[in-house]
Amino acid sequence: MRIVYDNTKCQGHGRCYSLSPSLFDTDDEGFAVLKVDGDVPADLEDDAILAADNCPEYAIEIQLQ
């Protein structure tokens, strides 16, 4: 599983880094920053799905491999 994050869609709601702090952080302006490059570790897959499901701007997508 991989996370595809489109930072041009992000509006800084903060749900992703509030719900999944192991996968997302915030920059100085309050926008999300993806912390994982490549495959999501198996123990964080549920967190990735939670972040994608709760993004109001649909800036986060999950790619299954």
What's the layout of helices and strands?
Blueprint: E1 2-5, H1 15-19, E2 24-26, E3 32-34, H2 45-53, E4 60-63
Q: How would you describe what is shown here?
A:
The protein has 65 residues and is α+β, with helices and mostly antiparallel strands. It has a single domain, classed as Alpha-Beta Plaits (2-Layer Sandwich). It has two helices and four strands. The strands form two sheets. A two-stranded antiparallel sheet has the order 1-4. It has a two-stranded antiparallel ribbon with strand order 2-3. Strand 2 and strand 3 (32-34) form a beta hairpin. The longest helix is centred in the last third of the chain and has 9 residues, at 45-53. The N and C termini lie close together (6 Å). The mean pLDDT is 96.
Structure at a glance:
The protein has 65 residues and is of the alpha+beta class. It has helices at 15-19, 45-53, and strands at 2-5, 24-26, 32-34, 60-63.
Kindly report how far apart the N and C termini lie: 6 Å
Assigned CATH class: Alpha Beta
Quickly give the CATH architecture: 2-Layer Sandwich
- Tell me the strand order in the biggest sheet: 1-4
> What proportion of the residues is helical, as a percent range?
10-25%
Silhouette? globular
**How many distinct beta strands?**
4
Please mark out the parts with pLDDT under 50 across 5 or more consecutive residues, or reply none: none
Order of helices and strands: EHEEHE
CATH fold-level topology: Alpha-Beta Plaits
Main structural class: alpha+beta
Q: What's the main sheet like?
A: 2 strands, antiparallel
- Proportion of beta-strand residues: 15-25%
Q: So how many helices?
A: 2
Rg calculated over all Cα atoms: 10 Å
Mean pLDDT: 96
Total domain count:
1
